[in-house]
Amino acid sequence: MGPHPAVAAIRLAVRRVLHDVLTEHTESLARLSHAGSAPRSEAARSDASPAVRAEAPRTAPTARRSGRPETSAASSLPRPATSSPGRLPGLPAGVPAPLVLVACSGGADSMALASALAFEAPKLSVRAGGVTVDHGLQDGSDLRAAEVASRLAAMGLDPVEAVSVRVGRGGGPEAAARDARYAALDDAAERHGAAAVLLGHTRDDQAETVLLGLARGSGIRSLSGMAAVSGTRGRYRRPFLQLDRQTARKACMVQSLPVWDDPHNADPAYTRSRLRHEGLPALEKALGKGVVEALARTAQLSRDDADALDTWAADAAASVRDEAGQLDCAKLYALPPAVRRRVLRRAVIDAGAPAGSLFARHVEEVDRLITGWRGQGAINLPGRVEARRQSGRLVIRQG
Description:
Helix content: 40-55%
Order of helices and strands: HHHEEHEHEHEHHEEHHHEHHHEEE
Structural class: alpha/beta
């Protein structure tokens, strides 16, 4: 008799992602080899035994800056014996096994993800480890992080870390915690040379993200939600975007996996929590079941459209500049609005504006220098960037 359908579903989702990681890893090493620069240091690190790696840990930065990680004592938890982390069956001879980390909070989604990774990785020539992040926002959070790390180690994951961060205040509590968390995960991935980091976002999370983007009125890119692959060099992978939250919770229950429910997820002080417990249920009551699935489908369609428009804008960016490299207002005016605004946004970011601080209203103000020119003055933008129209050219510069 096979596994429970929920367990089978999460394992299949993870298996597909691991196949992608393996393929990309092998192709990347092959390209390096053909270029005459085979990654000897990575192979040496992969062939090292767990004992050797434990004797020479690469620790996180010790300075406690906002959003930067510290490795806690849970990093040194005793780990169960595992098979050699070097070449495993299924990889070409001489190709080191890639490392995939799972980001685990201890909640149902990430615990289900960790269990599936622990089950599938040994069969697919992949080393599997885990990272849990302690945001320090609740009493006893350090003990809880250590407990989660212990559970990950008991699954056979190696390396396992509990990383402490200090959450800043920029952008609100949810955004600040997210920034701190991703900084910690990026740091862990770099230190361990991980090929990918798995995140437990589900279809329900995707639906919530789409609604939040819709509420902000930020355009089609906001409606595209979370990408299945994102981050530097495609570091972050989200295997569960096609699975609902209940499937992950059911998989934990049938496997007797302990789950921690973060009280912040039910705290109405947080926008996403209100949306989850009030907004989405109200929509389903008014529109019927299937709202979550429809929103997730909207995210994928929006992402496809946004990617196509971004490609168009990238191709158009060079054609709207004159011989001196200045943006020609007449040529910009001739572009479709969706393409023109993308060209303008990229030009403002290239001039020094932080992407996270540049909103649709900023781009619209710059766009009016093209489409609604009435002799208005310069537009002040984030990052001390200024946009002004001069002699039929759009000048965007910092300072």
